[in-house]
Amino acid sequence: MNRSTLKDLLEKYRTPFEEEKDFVPEFIVLTGDPKAFLRERKEGHFTASAWIVNKTRTHALLTHHKKLNRWLQLGGHADGNENLMEVAMTEAKEESGLISLKLVDSLIFDIDKHLIPANKKEKQHFHYDVRFLVEAAMDESLTVSEESKDLAWVAFDAVPDVVGNNKSILRMLEKTSKSEYAL
Predict the structure, then answer these.
(1) How far apart are CA 19 and CA 157, in angstroms?
(2) Does 148 reside within a domain?
(3) How many CB atoms lie within 10 A of CB 164?
(4) Is residue 182, in this structure, part of any structural domain at all?
(5) Which helix (H) or strand (E) holds 4?
(6) What is the end-to-end Cα distance of the chain in Å, rounded?
(7) What is the pLDDT of residues 15-71, one digit of tens each?
(8) What's the pTM value of the predicted model, to 2 decimals?
């Protein structure tokens, strides 16, 4: 995958969720920015995430993000890598220690534009997050990274209680139960 492939995937991307539809044109335009995959693009840049589920689609793997102090999907910055699928898989492995990760589909699973609050190192900015659906075995041991406070397999019915009103995670949860992604 490169920025041209990403642009093609975004142009073909379809979603029934209005908030996600609103993001698509911005994501497409961003693919043309030379700094789109770099943190140095201060107004916002691409990131990639893995929505990790178990094979029977009953649990999702979430990380308690240290800086944001919230339960989230695993993922991170592209740091110049235009292959966001590769970024998502690399980040998932680094942040979980899992080896058994399996990409379910090479198509984009979800997109989300969200504001990252200012901190000591950077001003507030947007993450344009491209997400992929990934499977993993729940019996494999987890390794908490320096970026996390904790990792947990969370039962689908408990995810709303854990993530609160995080619409993007609730959206991915809903998508996971749809027939095209269910077993």
Answers:
(1) 23
(2) yes
(3) 11
(4) no
(5) helix 3-12
(6) 26
(7) 999 999 999 999 999 999 999 999 999 899 999 999 999 999 999 999 999 888 899
(8) 0.94
Task: Give the number of other CB atoms < 10 A from CB of residue 79.
Answer: 11
CA pair distance 140, 20, nearest whole angstrom: 33
Q: Does 178 fall in a domain?
A: no
Average pLDDT across the chain, whole number: 93
Can you read off the two tokens belonging to residue 175? Answer: 């998508």
User: Which residue has 């659906």 as its token pair?
Assistant: 133
Whether residue 12 lies inside any domain: the answer is yes
Segments forming the whole domain that contains residue 20? 3-172
Cα separation, 171 vs 22, whole angstroms: 14
- For residue 82, the 8-state DSSP code is -
- How far, in Å, CA of 124 to CA of 26, rounded? 18
How many structural domains comprise the chain?
1
The whole-angstrom separation of Cα 36 and Cα 80 is 8
Question: How many angstroms separate the CA atoms of 95 and 74, rounded?
Answer: 7
- Run of H or E including 74: strand 74-77
Domain at 49, CATH number: 3.90.79.10
